[in-house]
Write a structure and sequence with these properties.
The complex is a heterotetramer, with 2 copies of chain A and 2 copies of chain C.
Chain A (H helix, E strand, L loop, with lengths): L1 E4 H15 L3 E5 L15 H5 L4 E3 L4 H13 L3 E8 L7 H14 L9 E6 L14 H5 L5 E3 L4 H13 L4 E6 L6 E4 L12 E4 L4 E5 L3 H16 L3 E5 L2 E3 L3 H11 L2 E8 L4 H12 L9 E5 L8 H7 L3 H11 L3
Parallel strand pairs in A: 2-3, 2-4, 4-5, 5-7, 6-7, 10-11, 10-13, 13-14
Antiparallel strand pairs in A: 1-8, 6-12, 9-11
Chain C lengths: L7 H6 L4 H26 L14 H9 L6 E5 L3 H6 L4 H8 L23 E5 L5 H15 L5 E6 L6 H12 L4 E7 L31 E3 L3 H16 L5 E6 L19 H7 L2 H11 L4 H24 L23
Parallel strand pairs in C: 1-2, 1-3, 3-4, 4-6, 5-6
The chains are: A alpha/beta, C alpha/beta.
Bound molecules: thiamine diphosphate (TPP) (2 copies) and magnesium ion (2 copies).
The site of one magnesium ion has 6 residues of chain C, from loops.
Amino acid sequence: MAELSYRDAVIRGISQEMERDQDVVFLGEDVAKAGGVFKATVGLYDKFGPLRVRDTPISEQAILGAAMGAAMTGLKPIAEIMFSDFIAVCFDYIANEFPKSRYMTNGQTKCPLVVRTGNGAGSRFGAQHSQSVENWCMMIPGLKVVAPSSPRDVIGLLAASVRDPDPVIFLEHKSLYSIKGEVPDGEIVDTLGTAKILRPGKDATILALAMMVPRALASAEKLATEHGIECEVIDVRSLVPLDTQTILGSVARTNRLFTVEENPRLCGWGAEIVSIVADEAFYDLDGPPVRITTPHCPLPASDLLEDAMLPNVDRIVDRIRRTMGA
Amino acid sequence: MAELSYRDAVIRGISQEMERDQDVVFLGEDVAKAGGVFKATVGLYDKFGPLRVRDTPISEQAILGAAMGAAMTGLKPIAEIMFSDFIAVCFDYIANEFPKSRYMTNGQTKCPLVVRTGNGAGSRFGAQHSQSVENWCMMIPGLKVVAPSSPRDVIGLLAASVRDPDPVIFLEHKSLYSIKGEVPDGEIVDTLGTAKILRPGKDATILALAMMVPRALASAEKLATEHGIECEVIDVRSLVPLDTQTILGSVARTNRLFTVEENPRLCGWGAEIVSIVADEAFYDLDGPPVRITTPHCPLPASDLLEDAMLPNVDRIVDRIRRTMGA
Amino acid sequence: MRMQARTETDLINDDIGETKRLELYKTQLVIRDAEQRAHDLFLQNLVKGTSHLSLGQEGVAAGFACAMKHGDLSFCTYRGHAHTLARGVPVEKVLGELMGRDNGLMRGKGGSMHLTSELHGVMGSYAIIGAHLPIACGAAWRAQYKGQKDVSVCFFGDGTTNIGAFHEALNFAVIWNLPVVFVCENNLYMEYTPISDVTAVQNPAGDRASAYGLPKIVIDGNDADVVYREALKAYDRARSGGGPSLIECLTYRHSGHSRADPAKYRPEGELERWKQRDPIKIYRERLAQFGISEKAISDIDAHVKREVDEATEKCKAAPPTSLDILTTDVYADGGYAWRN
Amino acid sequence: MRMQARTETDLINDDIGETKRLELYKTQLVIRDAEQRAHDLFLQNLVKGTSHLSLGQEGVAAGFACAMKHGDLSFCTYRGHAHTLARGVPVEKVLGELMGRDNGLMRGKGGSMHLTSELHGVMGSYAIIGAHLPIACGAAWRAQYKGQKDVSVCFFGDGTTNIGAFHEALNFAVIWNLPVVFVCENNLYMEYTPISDVTAVQNPAGDRASAYGLPKIVIDGNDADVVYREALKAYDRARSGGGPSLIECLTYRHSGHSRADPAKYRPEGELERWKQRDPIKIYRERLAQFGISEKAISDIDAHVKREVDEATEKCKAAPPTSLDILTTDVYADGGYAWRN
Ligand SMILES: Cc1ncc(C[n+]2csc(CCOP(=O)(O)OP(=O)(O)O)c2C)c(N)n1
Ligand SMILES: Cc1ncc(C[n+]2csc(CCOP(=O)(O)OP(=O)(O)O)c2C)c(N)n1
Ligand SMILES: [Mg+2]
Ligand SMILES: [Mg+2]
């Protein structure tokens, strides 16, 4: 057991997989010699050398395209897109190439790669460097989409992603890079498509992802101590595959559902899950399922505005308390 | 009144606006001299000349970027992206530039433009030329998103889009280009953000968009005659702004909700609307709201496979009938 | 098969040789006949989706494919029948795919625009302009990394040189010194717009080469010998660590852009002029020049015709795509399940 | 303000003139002092977000801005303070924005990376590499279409030349013959990676010009006079229907890429060598050469210092951004309502 930062967990996760498998290679902008703009890849270049850890030009299409071509023909590339907002400049690979090639070719083409990217708000970077783009990826058939909230999950889910035979979008939350957590020694490999119940509760289910997980937990604590509402908090972890069973099971026990989403309001993962629950567990629900999200707005740069925009403990507690009539 | 095809309605709609306002200009690939690959812009080049109707290189980023720069500084461009799937190669403009500039600049920057694009399946074009990408756009704060289902709506909503001060993504359905409908003479200007009840009904509400509208209507007919279920059919028409009131009003009367969506399953407009209804009209619902969608799959090329993939009357009727217990 | 003695000079200058020439001829002819047949089948409403023919451009496909070794990789566009057939994919598989039959190359799932046969080194046909140039870089990177000696060859049109991915791929290939060969088939048009209307330079690929520190190579794409020789040189460069090449081949498509296009935008006489330089016509003359008999040639003609006829019959007899595969192979586990 | 007679030759050769020279000097100095101040405020934790300084690159910003006419349009990157200030946007507005104060240029909504002042012709600062090159084309297209005579000037870095949008914009500008000037500030690095490590040619912009039929123009970006002269020529070309220009300015940033970067990746001595060629140092010497007195120069220095000091005080005293504007101006109606 060691205390590790989320940032260092990324380094350890990539290292673990590169040590295991010579076919794992890593490319991105400023990731090699400089160790990445978030310092989440420091040391990999020295450890694995210039053939396996490669700096690229500012050419996101070339980065993802090259990763795909390499994946199709025998490598297992990890590609970094520095900020997840930049997925927009290479979205053709995300939306049209990676996820469709296997299907279109009737199973001939494989695409085992991972796109790591810095996702999410909280760093005062403004509207084009702060977005939560999990729904940009979740909506595309053929992708897998993962977003860890703890250092341990970073390693385990990254390993699972690298070993997965499908293209995986791996969303690291920029505002979590400096958090720390206990991580066991030795190899860690997790399983995609498994949500985690982080806190049991009988009154309501709260689903959260990435940076919203600690906020959901803090909200649950407050709801319990101040309002006597016992919430079950689930870290969704993996949007595709989605652990619907754990979610439906929890709702069957608590009969209430809340999502806490950093993404802007429309068509987020919460909408998908609420719709699944409303369809398949309608009679389990004792009241309206409620999504607590960032408003349908671009993100502002100033710290005060940014903080006011995102779901926070006060807003979460208030909304759940009012909805539960407490 | 004249009978007009959906394709010719596009031509008339663009003409109407270009005649009205010299600042309306039009650009895209093969749109000018050749009249567009769907023949939906035939004659505009001859009518408005080479300065207002312009062929571009295969440079989608340049097309949308140029449209934006022109819109910011005084023109009202209509840009064509030939197939909506290609939005992926210029998604930065859709996701990061058009919709965020006004907010980021505290209201200084305007962006009054329309992106017209051929959306949807049914032409046996395969996975990269057949997608329904309305959710790619709906999820982005700052955009407006419109998808007409009839020749009359094409003209009216296109005019409203061109006159709208915000960036509008205007999704024309490729498989509707050849359908015909009655269109009044003279100028037609509709209102964004208004859904249309196309068929009243007391037992259930069916929401549909674009090509799914005729299928929803046919299904309602069948459900009425064969199963005695009276469905209210609403053409959503505009995803942003969304006419939530018409939808909630209908559900308040029918107490049941079905969506018929061409987009693949996850995070579609149906998920958003179902979530809104589940939250705000929970106690109006007499049973689970159900989304009838294309499965979470890429689209196949062969006619048999493609037809089997999309929601059709049989599947719609069957699903509604079973859910309603009839 | 040689029936007539060639002159001494012919023999000396003949770096290509008879066997390869007959292969080049046959390859071009298979493409010609199979695509003509695809067109006929479309007129009979047996080909349903769109299709983009390479009639008139066979010299490029044959020249590059016949210079490849087993294991070399082709990356094509939606106009990919030619390059797919040139690698030896059976005509039946291609026509079957176009007709949506269960014997098709991808059993109808991909269609005309996505022909893929990894077995034959055909690593996909890509229908979004420009996307496959970076992908070909990636395959070449794998070869370089693993010390494998195959070359990745990426075909695309003149219009493709104006999209961003072209630029990113070319720069990337050069700085990583990748064994990739970029082949621009300049057929003078994007869909319906003349490339010269929308391009800042005269040779859309050739005049861009220097932007990546590459030499300008512009060749006659309708002479399969010229193409073949240039291909060999580029492959050698790639295999020996000399890095990427960018080759512009001047050619012309005899039919419209896609099946829906009557190609009315062409200036009068243009098609006729190019038909004089039909690659198959040129190549038949070439074979004759090298003393190959009319009989040998017409044997190939007959053989190819038979192959295409037989393939057509098999396809007509084949069952349509099975609905069982509707949702298979979205994910690597064979299905499309995204949830438990 | 001239204090000493210049020689006859000086006067003859002086196409720029004293007034403009003083403007060029002052513009550079405002940038230098305001950015130094921004850095100090960051160290005091009063600037919260990221910021990208142009210290060392002031010659480019001043040269291009001082050659502009009222109504000309600037399109900047996240490294846009310099170009924004150079157009006359008050220091207070810029520092206020960086500090998230209500007096900021966008009242804190955009932050350092998105400085915009349409009033001053600053049409935005774009933080996604390459995006604004096509946008600048669009603004230039409007001018052309409406017969307006303004020029759109688009600033970007060396690293930006490797992204697809660069290529699309350049080709587009040339074929439409647009009045747009593309200015590449080659400061030798993208974020932390030397541009030469990832670029196929030596001059990332200059050596690409021919791919668009443009002449190669590579100039000394640290000499504001050189920049100013080149800018005038390019603007003239644009206004007179001569089409776009692509100008590469060689320069260097004295600080790291952004506030988080100590710039350890630089080879020893590189920064020191470039500091010898500090554009402000060069320009002070230039002014002296042209006989402008030390007193006149130090008056400007003092004036600028006062401006920056006063701006700083105003910003410190200003209230933080008001939460009232959190959700305003998403849509043109002033709000963010997406539903009824
Ligand atoms: C990104 C993108 N934009 C537009 C299209 C539509 N499109 C298909 S083929 C084509 C013309 C391509 O021209 P060229 O590269 O010269 O190839 P050719 O068809 O002549 O072989 C266009 C514009 C596309 N498939 N992808
Ligand atoms: C599409 C995109 N990719 C990557 C980045 C991250 N990024 C910001 S600045 C920068 C370096 C830009 O280098 P250059 O163009 O030389 O400009 P400079 O910063 O040197 O002024 C990078 C990679 C970005 N903002 N956008
Ligand atoms: Mg072409
Ligand atoms: Mg730079």
